[in-house]
Automatic annotation (TrEMBL):
Source organism superkingdom: Bacteria
Organism, as annotated: Limimonas halophila
Protein name per its UniProtKB record: Coenzyme A biosynthesis bifunctional protein CoaBC
Binding site for CTP: D285, K295, P312, D313, I314, L315, F332, K346, K350
Lineage of the species this protein comes from: Bacteria, Pseudomonadati, Pseudomonadota, Alphaproteobacteria, Rhodospirillales
Catalytic residue positions: C165
The Flavoprotein domain, residue ranges: 13-184
Purpose of the protein: Catalyzes two steps in the biosynthesis of coenzyme A. In the first step cysteine is conjugated to 4'-phosphopantothenate to form 4-phosphopantothenoylcysteine, in the latter compound is decarboxylated to form 4'-phosphopantotheine.
Entry GO terms, CC: phosphopantothenoylcysteine decarboxylase complex
Ranges for region Phosphopantothenoylcysteine decarboxylase: 1-197
Cited SUPFAM superfamilies: CoaB-like, Homo-oligomeric flavin-containing Cys decarboxylases, HFCD
Length: 411
Protein backbone atom coordinates (compact mmCIF):
# COMPACT_ATOMS: atom_id res chain seq x y z
CA UNK A 1 0.00 0.00 0.00
CA UNK A 2 1.47 3.43 -0.93
CA UNK A 3 2.18 5.81 1.96
CA UNK A 4 -0.57 8.22 2.96
CA UNK A 5 -0.26 11.75 1.56
CA UNK A 6 1.47 14.26 3.81
CA UNK A 7 -0.97 15.54 6.41
CA UNK A 8 -3.45 12.76 5.58
CA UNK A 9 -2.35 9.81 7.74
CA UNK A 10 -5.87 8.32 7.60
CA UNK A 11 -6.22 8.50 3.81
CA UNK A 12 -8.12 5.47 2.53
CA UNK A 13 -9.30 4.45 6.01
CA UNK A 14 -13.01 3.86 6.60
CA UNK A 15 -14.31 4.69 10.07
CA UNK A 16 -17.73 3.55 11.33
CA UNK A 17 -18.70 5.96 14.11
CA UNK A 18 -21.37 4.78 16.55
CA UNK A 19 -22.96 7.68 18.43
CA UNK A 20 -24.85 6.64 21.55
CA UNK A 21 -26.87 8.67 24.06
CA UNK A 22 -25.20 11.30 26.21
CA UNK A 23 -24.62 15.04 26.26
CA UNK A 24 -21.12 14.44 24.85
CA UNK A 25 -22.77 13.51 21.54
CA UNK A 26 -22.73 17.22 20.72
CA UNK A 27 -18.95 16.83 20.14
CA UNK A 28 -19.32 14.16 17.46
CA UNK A 29 -19.71 16.48 14.45
CA UNK A 30 -16.36 17.99 15.44
CA UNK A 31 -14.88 14.48 15.75
CA UNK A 32 -16.12 13.62 12.25
CA UNK A 33 -14.57 16.81 10.92
CA UNK A 34 -11.22 16.05 12.60
CA UNK A 35 -11.14 12.52 11.18
CA UNK A 36 -12.02 13.69 7.67
CA UNK A 37 -9.32 16.38 7.84
CA UNK A 38 -6.82 13.52 8.16
CA UNK A 39 -8.23 11.74 5.13
CA UNK A 40 -10.65 9.24 6.67
CA UNK A 41 -14.08 8.41 5.30
CA UNK A 42 -16.61 8.45 8.14
CA UNK A 43 -19.99 6.74 8.21
CA UNK A 44 -22.25 7.28 11.23
CA UNK A 45 -24.66 5.07 13.16
CA UNK A 46 -26.89 7.04 15.52
CA UNK A 47 -28.82 5.40 18.36
CA UNK A 48 -32.28 6.55 19.38
CA UNK A 49 -30.84 8.08 22.55
CA UNK A 50 -27.99 9.68 20.63
CA UNK A 51 -30.50 11.45 18.37
CA UNK A 52 -31.76 13.29 21.47
CA UNK A 53 -28.46 15.19 21.58
CA UNK A 54 -27.27 15.46 17.95
CA UNK A 55 -29.39 15.43 14.81
CA UNK A 56 -28.98 13.05 11.86
CA UNK A 57 -28.83 16.10 9.60
CA UNK A 58 -25.78 17.48 11.43
CA UNK A 59 -23.90 14.19 11.11
CA UNK A 60 -24.89 13.78 7.46
CA UNK A 61 -23.65 17.29 6.71
CA UNK A 62 -20.18 16.79 8.20
CA UNK A 63 -19.73 13.17 7.05
CA UNK A 64 -21.27 13.67 3.60
CA UNK A 65 -22.80 10.21 3.95
CA UNK A 66 -26.03 8.60 5.05
CA UNK A 67 -26.61 8.29 8.81
CA UNK A 68 -27.89 4.84 9.80
CA UNK A 69 -30.41 4.60 12.65
CA UNK A 70 -32.94 1.77 12.25
CA UNK A 71 -32.20 -1.96 12.46
CA UNK A 72 -35.51 -2.61 10.71
CA UNK A 73 -35.06 -0.24 7.77
CA UNK A 74 -36.13 -2.45 4.86
CA UNK A 75 -33.84 -0.84 2.27
CA UNK A 76 -30.70 -1.04 4.39
CA UNK A 77 -31.40 -4.42 5.94
CA UNK A 78 -32.42 -6.24 2.74
CA UNK A 79 -28.75 -7.17 2.37
CA UNK A 80 -28.11 -7.72 6.09
CA UNK A 81 -26.96 -4.13 6.37
CA UNK A 82 -25.93 -4.27 10.03
CA UNK A 83 -23.30 -6.88 9.13
CA UNK A 84 -22.21 -5.13 5.96
CA UNK A 85 -21.75 -1.83 7.80
CA UNK A 86 -19.13 -3.27 10.09
CA UNK A 87 -17.45 -5.36 7.39
CA UNK A 88 -16.90 -2.31 5.22
CA UNK A 89 -15.15 -0.43 8.04
CA UNK A 90 -11.46 -0.54 8.95
CA UNK A 91 -12.26 0.53 12.52
CA UNK A 92 -15.42 0.93 14.59
CA UNK A 93 -15.37 3.94 16.94
CA UNK A 94 -17.99 4.38 19.68
CA UNK A 95 -18.17 8.03 20.80
CA UNK A 96 -19.75 8.68 23.12
CA UNK A 97 -19.85 5.15 24.52
CA UNK A 98 -22.65 5.29 27.08
CA UNK A 99 -22.85 3.02 30.12
CA UNK A 100 -25.87 1.36 28.49
CA UNK A 101 -24.13 0.56 25.21
CA UNK A 102 -20.97 -0.67 26.98
CA UNK A 103 -23.14 -2.99 29.10
CA UNK A 104 -24.92 -4.32 26.01
CA UNK A 105 -21.62 -4.89 24.23
CA UNK A 106 -20.08 -6.70 27.20
CA UNK A 107 -23.17 -8.89 27.62
CA UNK A 108 -23.66 -9.64 23.92
CA UNK A 109 -27.10 -8.01 23.74
CA UNK A 110 -28.38 -6.94 20.34
CA UNK A 111 -31.67 -5.03 20.43
CA UNK A 112 -30.92 -2.11 18.11
CA UNK A 113 -28.69 -1.32 15.13
CA UNK A 114 -25.66 -0.22 17.17
CA UNK A 115 -25.57 -3.19 19.57
CA UNK A 116 -26.32 -5.66 16.77
CA UNK A 117 -23.49 -4.52 14.53
CA UNK A 118 -21.11 -4.54 17.52
CA UNK A 119 -22.03 -8.15 18.20
CA UNK A 120 -21.71 -9.08 14.51
CA UNK A 121 -18.42 -7.32 13.78
CA UNK A 122 -14.96 -8.83 13.60
CA UNK A 123 -13.51 -5.34 13.01
CA UNK A 124 -11.51 -3.83 15.86
CA UNK A 125 -13.33 -1.39 18.14
CA UNK A 126 -12.23 1.83 19.87
CA UNK A 127 -14.55 3.15 22.60
CA UNK A 128 -14.65 6.62 24.16
CA UNK A 129 -16.77 6.29 27.33
CA UNK A 130 -18.85 9.23 28.55
CA UNK A 131 -21.17 9.26 31.56
CA UNK A 132 -21.78 10.60 35.05
CA UNK A 133 -18.86 10.04 37.42
CA UNK A 134 -20.91 7.73 39.66
CA UNK A 135 -21.96 5.64 36.68
CA UNK A 136 -18.34 5.40 35.50
CA UNK A 137 -17.09 4.36 38.93
CA UNK A 138 -19.86 1.83 39.54
CA UNK A 139 -18.47 -1.74 39.80
CA UNK A 140 -20.82 -2.90 37.01
CA UNK A 141 -19.41 -0.37 34.54
CA UNK A 142 -15.83 -1.09 35.56
CA UNK A 143 -16.43 -4.82 35.13
CA UNK A 144 -17.97 -4.25 31.69
CA UNK A 145 -15.04 -2.10 30.55
CA UNK A 146 -12.54 -4.65 31.84
CA UNK A 147 -14.39 -7.42 29.97
CA UNK A 148 -14.28 -5.42 26.74
CA UNK A 149 -10.60 -4.61 27.16
CA UNK A 150 -9.79 -8.29 27.58
CA UNK A 151 -11.65 -8.96 24.33
CA UNK A 152 -9.44 -6.46 22.53
CA UNK A 153 -11.57 -3.30 22.63
CA UNK A 154 -9.33 -0.27 23.01
CA UNK A 155 -10.56 2.47 25.37
CA UNK A 156 -9.66 6.16 25.20
CA UNK A 157 -10.61 8.28 28.22
CA UNK A 158 -12.73 9.20 29.97
CA UNK A 159 -11.26 12.47 31.17
CA UNK A 160 -11.83 14.07 34.57
CA UNK A 161 -13.50 17.46 34.89
CA UNK A 162 -16.76 19.34 35.34
CA UNK A 163 -19.83 17.66 33.88
CA UNK A 164 -23.16 18.86 32.56
CA UNK A 165 -24.85 17.28 35.59
CA UNK A 166 -22.89 19.61 37.89
CA UNK A 167 -20.56 16.94 39.31
CA UNK A 168 -16.79 16.73 38.93
CA UNK A 169 -14.62 13.68 38.29
CA UNK A 170 -13.82 11.06 35.64
CA UNK A 171 -16.51 10.51 33.05
CA UNK A 172 -16.10 13.26 30.45
CA UNK A 173 -15.63 11.94 26.92
CA UNK A 174 -12.11 12.41 25.59
CA UNK A 175 -11.81 15.46 23.36
CA UNK A 176 -12.22 14.94 19.59
CA UNK A 177 -8.50 15.56 19.03
CA UNK A 178 -7.58 12.84 21.53
CA UNK A 179 -9.95 10.36 19.90
CA UNK A 180 -8.55 11.25 16.48
CA UNK A 181 -5.02 10.66 17.80
CA UNK A 182 -6.06 7.26 19.16
CA UNK A 183 -7.47 6.35 15.74
CA UNK A 184 -4.21 7.36 14.08
CA UNK A 185 -2.23 5.32 16.62
CA UNK A 186 -4.41 2.30 15.84
CA UNK A 187 -3.45 2.48 12.17
CA UNK A 188 0.24 2.74 12.90
CA UNK A 189 0.76 6.46 12.59
CA UNK A 190 2.34 6.04 16.03
CA UNK A 191 3.55 2.43 16.18
CA UNK A 192 6.88 2.52 18.03
CA UNK A 193 7.26 -1.28 17.92
CA UNK A 194 6.55 -1.68 14.21
CA UNK A 195 9.05 -4.15 12.77
CA UNK A 196 9.82 -5.62 16.22
CA UNK A 197 9.05 -9.15 17.38
CA UNK A 198 7.78 -9.93 20.87
CA UNK A 199 7.26 -13.14 22.85
CA UNK A 200 4.94 -13.25 25.88
CA UNK A 201 4.12 -16.15 28.19
CA UNK A 202 0.90 -16.22 30.17
CA UNK A 203 -1.35 -18.29 32.40
CA UNK A 204 -0.54 -21.26 34.61
CA UNK A 205 0.85 -24.60 33.54
CA UNK A 206 -0.81 -27.95 34.24
CA UNK A 207 1.63 -30.67 35.23
CA UNK A 208 0.01 -34.13 34.87
CA UNK A 209 0.04 -36.67 37.70
CA UNK A 210 -2.16 -39.20 35.96
CA UNK A 211 -4.74 -38.96 33.13
CA UNK A 212 -7.16 -37.22 35.52
CA UNK A 213 -5.12 -35.14 37.99
CA UNK A 214 -2.56 -32.40 37.58
CA UNK A 215 -0.55 -29.85 39.58
CA UNK A 216 -1.51 -26.23 38.87
CA UNK A 217 -1.74 -22.77 40.43
CA UNK A 218 -4.23 -19.91 40.66
CA UNK A 219 -2.93 -17.78 37.77
CA UNK A 220 -5.68 -16.45 35.48
CA UNK A 221 -3.57 -15.29 32.52
CA UNK A 222 -5.11 -11.81 32.62
CA UNK A 223 -1.82 -9.96 33.01
CA UNK A 224 0.12 -11.89 30.36
CA UNK A 225 -2.71 -11.68 27.84
CA UNK A 226 -3.00 -7.93 28.47
CA UNK A 227 0.75 -7.47 27.91
CA UNK A 228 0.59 -9.36 24.60
CA UNK A 229 -2.34 -7.23 23.43
CA UNK A 230 -0.59 -3.99 24.46
CA UNK A 231 2.61 -4.89 22.59
CA UNK A 232 0.59 -5.80 19.50
CA UNK A 233 -1.23 -2.46 19.64
CA UNK A 234 2.16 -0.72 19.56
CA UNK A 235 2.96 -2.53 16.33
CA UNK A 236 4.97 -5.55 17.54
CA UNK A 237 4.62 -8.89 15.78
CA UNK A 238 3.61 -10.69 18.97
CA UNK A 239 3.51 -14.38 19.84
CA UNK A 240 1.67 -15.39 23.02
CA UNK A 241 2.47 -18.79 24.54
CA UNK A 242 -0.23 -19.53 27.08
CA UNK A 243 -1.12 -22.27 29.49
CA UNK A 244 -4.75 -23.23 30.16
CA UNK A 245 -6.84 -20.12 30.86
CA UNK A 246 -10.36 -18.81 30.34
CA UNK A 247 -8.98 -15.60 28.82
CA UNK A 248 -9.92 -14.99 25.15
CA UNK A 249 -7.10 -14.87 22.62
CA UNK A 250 -6.03 -11.22 22.16
CA UNK A 251 -6.75 -9.63 18.80
CA UNK A 252 -3.81 -9.32 16.42
CA UNK A 253 -1.63 -11.80 18.33
CA UNK A 254 -0.30 -15.22 17.29
CA UNK A 255 -1.32 -17.60 20.09
CA UNK A 256 0.24 -20.94 20.98
CA UNK A 257 -1.76 -22.97 23.51
CA UNK A 258 0.19 -25.36 25.73
CA UNK A 259 -0.40 -27.38 28.89
CA UNK A 260 2.88 -28.10 30.67
CA UNK A 261 6.09 -26.20 31.40
CA UNK A 262 8.05 -28.38 28.99
CA UNK A 263 5.56 -27.66 26.21
CA UNK A 264 5.77 -23.94 27.02
CA UNK A 265 9.57 -23.98 26.77
CA UNK A 266 9.43 -25.75 23.41
CA UNK A 267 6.94 -23.21 22.06
CA UNK A 268 9.03 -20.28 23.34
CA UNK A 269 12.22 -21.58 21.75
CA UNK A 270 10.35 -22.09 18.47
CA UNK A 271 9.27 -18.41 18.53
CA UNK A 272 12.87 -17.11 18.72
CA UNK A 273 14.50 -14.85 17.71
CA UNK A 274 12.56 -11.92 19.15
CA UNK A 275 13.41 -8.40 20.29
CA UNK A 276 11.71 -8.74 23.67
CA UNK A 277 10.48 -11.64 25.77
CA UNK A 278 8.04 -11.02 28.63
CA UNK A 279 7.66 -14.02 30.92
CA UNK A 280 4.38 -13.35 32.72
CA UNK A 281 3.29 -16.99 33.02
CA UNK A 282 3.12 -18.63 36.43
CA UNK A 283 5.07 -21.69 35.36
CA UNK A 284 4.89 -24.69 37.68
CA UNK A 285 8.24 -25.16 39.43
CA UNK A 286 7.63 -28.88 39.93
CA UNK A 287 6.11 -31.84 38.11
CA UNK A 288 5.55 -35.46 38.98
CA UNK A 289 8.65 -37.56 38.44
CA UNK A 290 6.53 -40.19 36.73
CA UNK A 291 3.15 -39.65 35.08
CA UNK A 292 0.90 -42.62 35.84
CA UNK A 293 -0.65 -44.29 32.80
CA UNK A 294 -3.92 -44.91 34.66
CA UNK A 295 -5.90 -43.06 37.30
CA UNK A 296 -4.37 -43.58 40.72
CA UNK A 297 -7.04 -45.04 43.04
CA UNK A 298 -7.40 -44.15 46.71
CA UNK A 299 -8.50 -47.66 47.69
CA UNK A 300 -5.87 -49.67 49.53
CA UNK A 301 -3.72 -46.71 50.58
CA UNK A 302 -3.88 -44.31 53.55
CA UNK A 303 -1.26 -41.95 52.16
CA UNK A 304 0.32 -41.13 48.84
CA UNK A 305 3.89 -39.95 48.53
CA UNK A 306 4.27 -38.06 45.28
CA UNK A 307 7.83 -37.64 44.05
CA UNK A 308 8.44 -34.30 42.33
CA UNK A 309 11.22 -33.09 40.04
CA UNK A 310 12.03 -29.58 38.87
CA UNK A 311 10.55 -28.19 35.67
CA UNK A 312 12.74 -26.33 33.17
CA UNK A 313 13.25 -22.67 34.12
CA UNK A 314 11.92 -20.82 31.09
CA UNK A 315 12.93 -17.32 32.22
CA UNK A 316 16.49 -18.46 32.97
CA UNK A 317 16.74 -20.31 29.65
CA UNK A 318 15.62 -17.26 27.66
CA UNK A 319 18.05 -15.07 29.63
CA UNK A 320 21.11 -17.22 28.91
CA UNK A 321 23.73 -15.52 26.72
CA UNK A 322 23.66 -16.75 23.15
CA UNK A 323 22.75 -15.90 19.59
CA UNK A 324 19.02 -16.19 20.25
CA UNK A 325 18.91 -14.29 23.54
CA UNK A 326 16.41 -11.44 23.16
CA UNK A 327 17.92 -7.97 23.65
CA UNK A 328 15.37 -7.40 26.42
CA UNK A 329 14.08 -10.15 28.73
CA UNK A 330 11.42 -9.21 31.28
CA UNK A 331 10.41 -11.52 34.10
CA UNK A 332 7.57 -11.40 36.61
CA UNK A 333 8.00 -12.12 40.32
CA UNK A 334 4.83 -12.97 42.23
CA UNK A 335 5.79 -12.62 45.88
CA UNK A 336 3.92 -12.87 49.18
CA UNK A 337 6.54 -11.09 51.33
CA UNK A 338 9.65 -8.91 50.93
CA UNK A 339 8.40 -8.24 47.42
CA UNK A 340 11.17 -5.96 46.12
CA UNK A 341 14.04 -7.79 47.85
CA UNK A 342 12.89 -11.18 46.59
CA UNK A 343 12.36 -9.81 43.09
CA UNK A 344 15.86 -8.31 43.00
CA UNK A 345 17.30 -11.66 44.02
CA UNK A 346 15.25 -13.41 41.34
CA UNK A 347 16.49 -10.99 38.67
CA UNK A 348 20.11 -11.72 39.62
CA UNK A 349 19.50 -15.45 39.78
CA UNK A 350 17.71 -15.72 36.43
CA UNK A 351 19.88 -13.27 34.50
CA UNK A 352 16.98 -11.32 33.02
CA UNK A 353 17.07 -7.57 32.35
CA UNK A 354 13.93 -6.41 34.15
CA UNK A 355 11.64 -7.86 36.79
CA UNK A 356 8.03 -6.84 37.38
CA UNK A 357 7.40 -7.56 41.06
CA UNK A 358 3.83 -7.96 42.27
CA UNK A 359 2.42 -8.68 45.72
CA UNK A 360 0.18 -11.77 45.69
CA UNK A 361 -0.17 -12.16 49.45
CA UNK A 362 -3.58 -13.39 50.65
CA UNK A 363 -6.05 -10.53 50.74
CA UNK A 364 -4.49 -8.51 47.92
CA UNK A 365 -6.83 -9.98 45.28
CA UNK A 366 -3.97 -9.80 42.78
CA UNK A 367 -3.51 -13.45 41.85
CA UNK A 368 -6.35 -14.15 39.43
CA UNK A 369 -7.89 -10.70 39.98
CA UNK A 370 -8.39 -7.74 37.66
CA UNK A 371 -5.88 -5.35 39.28
CA UNK A 372 -2.18 -5.37 40.08
CA UNK A 373 0.22 -3.36 42.23
CA UNK A 374 3.71 -3.71 40.82
CA UNK A 375 7.30 -2.50 41.11
CA UNK A 376 9.40 -2.39 37.94
CA UNK A 377 13.04 -3.25 38.68
CA UNK A 378 15.32 -2.41 35.77
CA UNK A 379 18.81 -2.74 37.27
CA UNK A 380 20.84 -3.67 40.32
CA UNK A 381 21.29 -0.13 41.49
CA UNK A 382 18.22 1.47 39.94
CA UNK A 383 15.46 2.42 42.34
CA UNK A 384 12.38 0.32 41.54
CA UNK A 385 9.48 2.14 39.90
CA UNK A 386 6.51 1.80 42.26
CA UNK A 387 3.34 1.94 40.19
CA UNK A 388 -0.04 2.64 41.80
CA UNK A 389 -2.72 -0.03 41.96
CA UNK A 390 -3.96 -0.32 38.37
CA UNK A 391 -6.14 -2.49 36.23
CA UNK A 392 -4.00 -5.20 34.67
CA UNK A 393 -4.75 -3.73 31.24
CA UNK A 394 -3.28 -0.41 32.42
CA UNK A 395 -0.22 -2.17 33.87
CA UNK A 396 0.23 -3.79 30.46
CA UNK A 397 -0.03 -0.45 28.63
CA UNK A 398 2.61 1.11 30.92
CA UNK A 399 4.95 -1.85 30.56
CA UNK A 400 4.57 -1.91 26.77
CA UNK A 401 5.35 1.81 26.60
CA UNK A 402 8.49 1.29 28.73
CA UNK A 403 9.55 -1.58 26.47
CA UNK A 404 9.04 0.58 23.38
CA UNK A 405 11.13 3.36 24.91
CA UNK A 406 13.93 0.94 25.82
CA UNK A 407 14.07 -0.74 22.42
CA UNK A 408 13.92 2.66 20.73
CA UNK A 409 16.93 3.86 22.72
CA UNK A 410 18.88 0.77 21.70
CA UNK A 411 18.14 1.01 17.97
Amino acid sequence: MPPAPAGKPLAGKRILLVVSGGIAAYKTPELVRRLRERGAAVRCVLTEAGARFVTPLALEAVSEDVVYRDLWALTAESGMGHIQLSREADLVVIAPASADLLAKQASGLADDLASTLLLATDTEVLAAPAMNVRMWQHPATQANVETLRRRGVRVVGPDAGDMACGEHGPGRMAEPEAIRDAVEAHFGADAPLAGRRALVTSGPTHEPIDPVRYIANRASGRQGHAVAAALARLGADTTLVTGPTAEPDPAGVTVRHVESAREMLTACEAALPVDVAVCAAAVGDWRAAEEAAHKCKREGRDAWALELVQNPDILARLSQPGANRPPLVVGFAAETDAVVANARAKRARKGCDWIVANDVAPGTGTFGGAHNTVHLITGDDAEPEAWPRLAKTDVAERLAARIADSLGEGS
